[in-house]
Amino acid sequence: MNLLQTVSFSDRLAVAEENANAVKPLTERHPDISVREAYMIQLKTIERKVEAGASIVGKKIGLTSLAMQKLLGVDQPDYGHLLNRMEVEDGGKVSLGRLIQPKVEAEIAFKLNQDLVGPRVTSTEVLLATEYIQPALEIVDSRIEDWQIKLQDTIADNASSGMYVLGGQPVSVDKVDLSHLGMAFYKNNKLVNTGVGAAALGGPANAIAWLANKLFEFGIYLEAGEIILSGALSAAVQAEAGDVFTARMAHIGEVSVTFTD
Amino acid sequence: MESKTIKKTAVFLIDAENEKREVPRITDEYPDLSVDEAYAIQEELVNIRLGQGYRMVGSKMGLTSHAKKKQMNIDKPIYGYIFDYMVTDANVLHVNELIHPKVEAEIAFILSRDLEGPDVTTEDVLASTEYVVPALEVIDSRFQNFQFTSPDVIADNASSSRVFFGSVMRKPDEMELDLVGVTLSINGELRDLGASAAVLGHPANSVAMLANMLSRQGKKLKAGQIILTGGITGAQLLSLGDIVSAKWDGLGTVEFKVEQ
């Protein structure tokens, strides 16, 4: 894949996002796009958004659960970039007009206070480099029609990132057992599912260590100050107008968001 | 259902348990078996066990989580009873005593006061709870292929079989009882997980529902009883040689090995 093709795929996805209008999977006509090429498309889109004034505030890790990996037939997670304009305040409203086919998932967010440079970062080093954790909701959205994604499609599409909400209280990692931190997820005050930290690659710090090591392949590292969404603790739930989503997490509080037309 | 048939059916299920033999469903022969009749069979079964000298140590709720309801295709919680012979202190499950055991991770409540329905609330339960403890419950339906309808499993004492309790006890106000994260691993592989809200939104709701269900039979929950509130995780089938390990946030670990 040459630079022109990378730019062309990046354009297609950027326009889809801008117009909130989904496109066919890239892999439908180009089944030979590699995972690395898919990341190059993502990085190109992010580079151009940054040139246009956006700033990178962190990363998100996707496909951290066995169930999601099985669904896509893959054996590893993926990642995407969080930009400043994706953040929604806790309890805030999100207009569905900005999104295509959003789903919501509950995750533990990490705020780093040290850089994490691959390729041999361990989960213990992740914990030592973490200023605090807090509960987060990730609103995932796909620019690909009907979520008909293969791994390469979602990676090229910034790992299906949409928006994110940070809530609760910042808590130091030494106050909790991250792998056993329980989560209950509610839609319109009705419990829809539960989860626990271990759902994300056996533990959220494992997921972040994976990310730090993956980024090394692209000459990128996790920087102090970044927010990392460490992976869904339960299945994503589709959002419709009027829906209120709340995640409650043991020891670190709750976070919520409302969808409007 | 005649009382003779009720008695005969209870004996049939006790024999199946004693002889480790899976049997056809009751509803194959009595398709109209009602929930009330099923509880009458269960009561007969309990009385037979008590007559044999076994002691009742508590009760259990079953089918309280969305995962379990879906797994068994039954949408209403049920209850059954736990006897002394089911509580296993050595960390070994003897599989040759059982038919096709499955395991699930739960939170158990030990009551400090009696709880009598019909209007018991979650708050009443928390105020009447001495301790909460972690438990691995082994269920073992006496029915072929672990397949049953709601009346079948009620008659079969809610598939009660064995229980392993953990050694950590907590006062209910020491933790957010509906946000207890749990992982269940077998042979080192993570098999299932969840948080305790999976049990009817809060495990104390399960105890309240039990007290209220019992009140219809003129019964109550008594101080000192242990109540298993229902699986937080789905039930996982066990095999000889398995090493089962579950961990609860704030409530420690329970482990056992499956031997002959």
From TrEMBL, chain A:
One of its GO terms (molecular function) is 2-oxopent-4-enoate hydratase activity. InterPro entries: Fumarylacetoacetase-like_C, Fumarylacetoacetase_C_sf, Hydratase-Decarb/MhpD_sf. Signal peptide: none annotated. GO terms for cellular component: cytoplasm. Keywords: Lyase. It comes from the Bacteria. Residues 101-258 form the Fumarylacetoacetase-like C-terminal domain. It holds the Pfam family FAA_hydrolase. This is 2-keto-4-pentenoate hydratase. It comes from Domibacillus epiphyticus.
Automatic annotation (TrEMBL), chain B:
Residues 86-258 form the Fumarylacetoacetase-like C-terminal domain. One of its GO terms (molecular function) is 2-oxopent-4-enoate hydratase activity. Pfam families: FAA_hydrolase. Keywords: Lyase. The keyword Lyase applies. InterPro entries: Fumarylacetoacetase-like_C, Fumarylacetoacetase_C_sf, Hydratase-Decarb/MhpD_sf. One of its GO terms (cellular component) is cytoplasm. The keyword Ubl conjugation does not apply. Signal peptide: none annotated. It comes from the Bacteria. PANTHER family: 2-KETO-4-PENTENOATE HYDRATASE, ACID HYDRATASE. This is 4-oxalocrotonate decarboxylase. It comes from Domibacillus epiphyticus.
